[in-house]
Amino acid sequence: MGHILLVVEPSWTRLTSGGRPVIADDLIQGVQTRIVELHGFADLSAGGPSGYASVDPAGVVASTPGIPVAPDRWMDLEDARDAGEPTATDQDFDLILTGPDTESVLPIRVRVLVHPGARTASVPAIVGVEAISAIPHGIVAYVQVSPSRPRDAARFGGGHWLLKLSDDGSPIWWERLTEPGLSSEVQVRHLAVGADGRVYRMVAEPDGLSIYRRPGS
Questions:
Q1: Rounded to an integer, what distance in angstroms lies between the CA atom of residue 38 and that of residue 153?
Q2: Which is it for strands 138-147 and 125-135: parallel, antiparallel or unpaired?
Q3: For residues 189-209, b (16+ Cβ closer than 10 Å) or e, as one string?
Q4: 12, 10, 11, 16: which is closest to 59 by C-alpha?
Q5: pLDDT tens digits, residue range 45-71?
Q6: Which of 21, 60, 73, 182 makes a 20 to 30 Å CA pair with 150?
């Protein structure tokens, strides 16, 4: 009796807004509905929806005020320059908290301090913040930091941090992450929230991928 080869074709769902396909990435974990981040229409024409959106089973997207963290509550992290703040730098972000009838904006500036010798100095830097997962009443973000001046970058280097922000007054997490064994430039996801609600980090190593659980999360 011969072998039977079963070929299963993947089932793809096109995401659309108003009947037009859209570009989406950053599928957010830890939420009960599918949440993505939109980047306009797929045909690259001007306009189109941007920001976070929910996705129904048919692939139709609907904009949301941010990442849902509780019933009728959303959180978002936005580059302050994109928000039109004239004095914002590469180190400034806005935490946007949205409720049923209110919206609050909390400015955040990441200061980068170095220690040349016995003194402490602040240096200009480029800071990238990516919200990747939701937890009850909060969001988890992956932060990349590098001094913007080449001489500072060569001397002090950059790094990666775990950031957790909440809307219920619970403590902020700001924790330095150890450097991976391989370059992580092409790695799409570094942090994840498991089915147990705990935060995990995925690290590319020369002999495979290591997964670490954050203690106490």
A1: 32
A2: antiparallel
A3: ebbbbeeeeebbbbbeeeeee
A4: 16
A5: 778 899 999 999 999 999 999 999 999
A6: 182
Q: For 121-159, how does the pLDDT look when each residue is reduced to its tens digit (9 = 90+)? A: 999 999 999 998 999 899 999 999 999 999 999 999 999
> Confidence band (pLDDT; 50, 70, 90) for 120?
very high
CB contact at 8 A, 28 and 67: yes
How is residue 30 written in tokens? 């830890």
List the one residue out of 164, 210, 165 whose CA is nearest residue 184. Answer: 210
Contact 68, 134 (CB under 8 A): yes
Residue 77, strand partner residues = 95
Single-letter amino acid, residue 70: A
CA 29 to chain CA centroid, Å, is 10
